[in-house]
């Protein structure tokens, strides 16, 4: 059986340990709150009267290429990206982030003329009939409109706020744009945009070849 003196020493030691843990937690919390308040104070400093100086260098031409395709249709799409990141066993008020991102972008559908076979265009002997065989239309990469796309709402835990304050990465929204591009690309592939591009290309070639004197023009896709 422990003596009263030994029990008192253990009790004081346990009390000091608990006090140290609580003090450390309070210190971390106070420091985090202070950083957030300092950031808010810095953001609240008025910037009236500041000027922007453009010291960019001249634009350099890196390459040139001939276009050999017909952009026959274009679609504009809008998607709301709801991206949430959390950590198991920790509340989102401490660690976590949820962002609502409104993305607007366009996708072009085109017909490529650069790889046509030698028999892709067949003309009759009297030059009154022409048959054209083209590859199916393809979709270009989604092109997001950065001026019209924006973050609608964002919630962040205190740890993420402090981390964002010290790490102002220019690619912090790169994942949002990547997710939006994929969703818009998937939507474009199911929208019938390629079918419309093929119809527009067929109409364009018919009008052009008939203006050159061909009476019967047939355009097919293989």
Question: Briefly, what is this?
Answer:
The chain has helices at residues 4-43, 158-166, 174-189, 193-211, and strands spanning 69-86, 96-112, 121-123, 129-134, 138-139, 143-144, 150-156, 216-221. It has 222 residues and is of the alpha+beta class. Helix 1 packs across helix 2.
Average pLDDT, rounded to a whole number, is 78
Strand content: 25-35%
Shape: elongated
Q: Rg to the nearest angstrom?
A: 32 Å
User: Helical amount among residues, as a percent range?
Assistant: 25-40%
Most strands sheet? 5 strands, antiparallel
Q: In angstroms, what separates the terminal alpha carbons? A: 94 Å
Give the number of helices.
4
Number of strands: 8
- SSE string: HEEEEEEEHHHE
How does the helix and strand content classify structurally? Answer: alpha+beta
Extract low-pLDDT stretches: none
Report on the structure:
The chain is α+β, with helices and mostly antiparallel strands and 222 residues long. It has 4 helices and 8 strands; from the N terminus they run H-E-E-E-E-E-E-E-H-H-H-E. It has helices at residues 4-43, 158-166, 174-189, 193-211; strands spanning 69-86, 96-112, 121-123, 129-134, 138-139, 143-144, 150-156, 216-221. The strands form 2 sheets. Strands 1, 2, 5, 6 and 7 form a 5-stranded antiparallel β-sheet that branches. A 3-stranded mixed β-sheet has the order 3-4-8, with helices on one face. A hairpin with a 5-residue loop joins strand 3 (121-123) and strand 4. Helix 1 packs across helix 2. The mean pLDDT is 78.
């Amino acid at each position: 059986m422990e003596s009263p003196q030994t029990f008192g020493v253990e009790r004081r030691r346990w009390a000091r340990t608990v006090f140290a843990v609580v003090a450390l937690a309070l210190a971390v919390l106070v420091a985090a709150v202070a950083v957030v308040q300092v950031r808010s104070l810095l953001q609240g400093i008025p910037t009236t009267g500041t000027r922007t100086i453009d010291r960019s260098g001249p634009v350099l031409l890196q390459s040139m290429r001939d276009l050999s395709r017909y952009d026959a249709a274009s679609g504009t799409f809008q998607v709301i990206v709801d991206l949430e990141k959390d950590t198991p066993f920790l509340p989102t008020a401490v660690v976590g982030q949820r962002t609502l991102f409104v993305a607007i972008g366009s996708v072009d559908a085109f017909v490529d003329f650069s790889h046509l076979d030698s028999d892709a265009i067949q003309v009759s002997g009297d030059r009154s009939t022409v048959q054209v065989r083209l590859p199916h239309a393809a979709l270009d990469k989604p092109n997001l409109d950065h001026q019209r796309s924006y973050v609608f709402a964002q919630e962040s835990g205190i740890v993420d706020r402090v981390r964002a304050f010290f790490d102002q990465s220019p690619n912090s929204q790169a994942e949002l744009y990547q997710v939006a591009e994929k969703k818009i690309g998937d939507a474009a592939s199911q929208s019938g945009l390629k079918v419309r591009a093929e119809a527009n290309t067929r109409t364009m070639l018919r009008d052009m070849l008939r203006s050159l004197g061909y009476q019967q023009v047939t355009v097919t896709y293989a």
